[in-house]
């Protein structure tokens, strides 16, 4: 199998991903993935965030008297947590795939469901898209990065507002 992978056999890439299941623990949080490749140097991943079921809406603290206090997060704090969660998952996906396969580039596209205020329906949108290159990725000190700041090292599309969260964006492509 390793010989086939090193020779750039795309079927072997998919078999290794299926057998090793590097994103399994993210799947346990309800995230879904679609993984594909067009050539031996690049992987594309669509990642379903499902942030509404992952990110807490309340903050729990202990008062001086030792009682539990539960307060709703401010919009700013909630969306900041959401942004860091999404960006950290994207970095994690790229990191796992770089560790598993001899690829040079990983595109990760994060999708979430949001209300379309024009139609009144919940729709699935791309909210962050990033092109991770191995050379830059390997220079990062993962112990000290802020996930949303770390995306600035890579070509990415993201519209994020502190009090509104993510807005729909277009996926990056090979042409970008």
Quick recap of the structure?
The protein has 176 residues and is α+β, with helices and mostly antiparallel strands. It has a single domain, classed as Diaminopimelate Epimerase, Chain A, domain 1, CATH 3.10.310.
Based on secondary structure, the structural category is alpha+beta
Treating each run of at least 4 consecutive H or I residues as one helix, how many helices? 7
Uncertain spans, ≥5 residues at pLDDT below 50? none
The helix content, as a percent range, equals: 25-40%
From the coordinates shown, what is the CATH architecture? Roll
Biggest pleated sheet: 6 strands, mixed
Termini gap = 32 Å
Strand content: 25-35%
Explained architecture:
- Helices cover about 35% and strands about 35% of the residues.
- With about 180 residues, the protein is of the alpha+beta class.
- It has a single domain (about 20-165), classed as Roll (Diaminopimelate Epimerase, Chain A, domain 1).
- The strands form two sheets. Strands 1-2-5-6-7-8 form a six-stranded mixed beta sheet.
- Strand 7 (about 155-160) and strand 8 form a beta hairpin.
- It is globular.
């Amino acid at each position: 199998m390793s010989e086939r992978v090193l020779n750039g056999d795309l079927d072997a890439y998919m078999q290794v991903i299926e057998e090793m299941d590097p994103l399994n623990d993210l799947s346990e949080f309800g995230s879904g993935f679609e993984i594909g490749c067009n050539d031996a140097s690049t992987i594309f991943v669509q990642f379903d965030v499902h942030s509404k079921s992952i990110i807490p809406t309340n903050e729990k603290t202990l008062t001086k008297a030792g009682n539990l206090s539960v307060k709703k997060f401010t919009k700013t704090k909630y969306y900041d947590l959401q942004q860091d969660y999404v960006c950290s998952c994207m970095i994690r996906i790229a990191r796992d795939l770089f560790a598993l396969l001899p690829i040079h580039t990983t595109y990760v596209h994060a999708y979430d469901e949001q209300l379309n205020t024009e139609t009144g329906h919940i729709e699935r949108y791309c909210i962050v898209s990033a092109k991770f290159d191995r050379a830059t990725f390997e220079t990062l000190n993962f112990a000290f990065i802020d996930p949303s700041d770390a995306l600035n090292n890579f070509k990415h599309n993201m519209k994020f507002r502190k009090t509104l969260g993510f807005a729909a964006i277009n996926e990056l492509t090979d042409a970008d």
